[in-house]
Amino acid sequence: LGNIAQIDTPYLTEGSSGLTYVVDRFKGWSHGGHVTLQRGERSRLADHAAEVL
Are 32 and 26 in contact (CB under 8 A)? Predict the structure, then answer.
């Protein structure tokens, strides 16, 4: 699980993160998959933290 919007280091981007790398490498594997959520599916606190931090 991960949220590429929460990257907070100048050395990584959404395209160079480990999460993006893994999703890309598993694309062709019939047993792999991923789900991109359009809104927060956690607590209100986690959603708020994602917005302000």
Answer: yes
